[in-house]
Design a protein that fits this description.
The chain has 528 residues and is α/β, with parallel strands linked by helices. 46% of the residues lie in helices and 11% in strands.
Length: 528
């Protein structure tokens, strides 16, 4: 009888583990509840500890994950999966060297597991050891050609600025899995960086099946009315929506005029802060929060289209760098002439939107701008709207891919955070803060029209200055955003923009040494 009871108890616990495993991806919090109840009954249940640790890691609670998985390893140090999982958890805590140690143990125990090699490569990538990452990923692919591993390899090649190898790797992933959206989007970025705009925009259409946030747009607009670029637009009403950041809207609004030339009535759905600068390009502006439903009701329309699809649909690859946005007034220049008439006036911004997936690499500690104050006759003006400390998650919000290659975001994971204060150590900088004058991009454009120069990171301000023809210097990370291409100090998009690129990853000091030198040359030329 006792033996029968134990068998039933074991069966119940096995069922609990199986159920928790099934819920782990989509409902990790429910899985967590089940596993905690299981471990109350049997605190040394190895499968339960393993799954709970993995659950914590998936939710971004990596400190707890390490503690739980370590308990499992103390009970059984021969479990390769647990060495892998604890390695990933250490990686989630930015302890990449410890993560590598653990993953090496997992590989030692199970050398034929390609996933462990993939995971250790990601840690090497984090610490900048790209050659070792490539070696691990190539070994993983020799065991099994998995498209996800291939795009990881392609991304590492991309970070090494070896776009030829990167492209071949993404193309191989697509050859194996033609509907793998992530590979198509990564290939698009590769083409863009090479200046292959037509090929890039063609591949970039896969973003609708890749970026989780695109599901909001699919729900907001009638997908049966999606314009295909071929149907005539004469006397038709077309709704264009700004799908991503403000900089993207400013950059691609230039294409909207072609729709009007085709006889369309053009409506633009954008953020309210963009209304004034984008209104001249369209017949009607719409402001609506598609997540909360607040704002304007969508008017009747015949077709709808994402603004960043226009170059693909219009086959518009002839890019002009000429200005196309005007400030409403030049009165701010008169103000500066009265207050700062004897100085060379430079507007600066050092950080972009914290919501941007690469904000941490593109944003710049303000201290690197300090040497510019040493240049004779220079006055710096702050255009930085958000000066708060930034919190960055140490793990990405998890996604999963279905059989068609579509990526969807899983439940709301709470990632652990690290905090960056980009203004640290700059309390004594001689900055004139203009942000109290800025409520929207129209205000920003008025200010830009009065400045002698803008120096900033890769953010919407750089796009606006370029679109206005205002002299602007963009300071870019070693791996730049796709629109700035991989090399060169000019931009095909904006004639007035000059680019200063990191020649060494994370080395802003060297870049600003060149910026300062260029600034001295600029002022000497003006005196000549």
């Amino acid at each position: 009888m006792t033996e029968e009871i134990f068998e039933k108890a074991d069966a119940i616990m096995d069922q609990a583990v199986e159920t928790a495993g099934e819920l782990l991806s989509d409902k990790p919090r429910v899985a967590e509840v089940i596993l905690k109840q299981l471990l109350k009954v049997d605190p040394e249940h190895l499968s339960g500890l393993q799954l709970l640790g993995l659950c914590k890691h998936r939710m971004g609670q990596n400190s707890e994950a390490v503690e739980i998985i370590q308990t499992a390893l103390d009970l059984d140090p021969t479990c390769a999966d647990n060495w892998n999982n604890i390695g990933l958890s250490y990686g989630g805590l930015d302890n990449y060297h410890r993560a590598i140690d653990c993953l090496e143990k997992a590989i030692e125990l199970k050398p034929e597991q390609y996933l462990f090699l993939n995971n250790i490569a990601l840690q090497y990538r984090h610490i900048g050891e790209h050659e070792r990452a490539v070696e691990a990923l190539e070994k993983a692919l020799s065991l099994e050609e998995v498209p996800q591993v291939m795009i990881n390899l392609g991304s590492v090649y991309g970070e090494m600025n070896d776009l030829e190898k990167s492209q071949k790797t993404f193309e191989r992933a697509i050859e194996i899995s033609p509907n793998y959206a992530a590979a198509h989007v990564d290939l698009a970025m590769n083409f863009f960086l090479q200046g292959e705009w037509k090929a890039g925009h063609n591949e970039y259409e896969w973003r609708f099946d890749y970026y989780p946030q695109m599901s909001h747009y699919k729900n907001a607009y009638d997908m049966n009315k999606r314009w295909n670029g071929k149907v005539p637009l004469k006397d038709k009403r077309i709704l264009i929506y700004c799908e991503q950041g403000s900089g993207d809207a400013i950059q691609f609004v230039r294409n909207v005029s072609q729709l009007k030339d085709m006889g369309a009535y053009v409506m633009l759905h954008c953020a309210e802060s963009l209304n004034a600068v984008l209104a001249p390009f369209v017949d009607q502006i719409i402001n609506k929060n598609i997540v909360t439903g607040e704002g304007d009701e969508f008017p009747e329309y015949d077709y709808q289209c994402a603004i960043m699809s226009l170059p693909h649909l219009l086959d518009n690859i002839e890019i002009s760098g000429k200005p196309y946005i005007k400030a409403p007034t030049d009165k701010f220049r008169e103000h500066l002439a009265k207050e700062y008439g004897n100085s060379f006036n430079i507007g600066i911004a050092w950080a972009g939107s914290p919501a941007h997936p690469r904000d941490k690499s593109r944003s710049i500690p303000l201290k690197h701008f300090q040497p510019l104050q040493e240049v004779d006759n220079v006055q710096l003006f702050s255009l930085q709207m958000d000066v708060r400390k930034r919190e960055y998650g140490l793990v990405h919000f998890p996604t999963k891919q279905d059989e068609q290659g579509k990526m969807t975001q899983l439940s709301n994971f709470q990632a652990e955070k690290n905090v960056v204060d980009y203004c640290e150590g700059c309390e004594d900088m001689n900055l004139v803060d203009l942000t109290s004058m800025i409520q929207n991009f129209e205000d920003t454009s008025t200010i830009l029209a009065g400045l002698d120069l803008v120096i900033c990171c890769d953010t919407a301000l750089l796009h606006l200055a370029g679109a206005m023809g205002v002299p602007a210097w963009g300071v870019l990370a070693y791996n730049p955003d796709w629109r700035w291409e991989i090399e060169g100090d000019t931009s095909i998009w904006y004639d007035s923009v000059r680019l200063f690129r990191q020649t060494e990853r994370d080395n802003w000091e060297e870049v600003f040494g060149r910026v300062k030198e260029a600034l001295n040359e600029e002022l000497l030329a003006r005196k000549a």
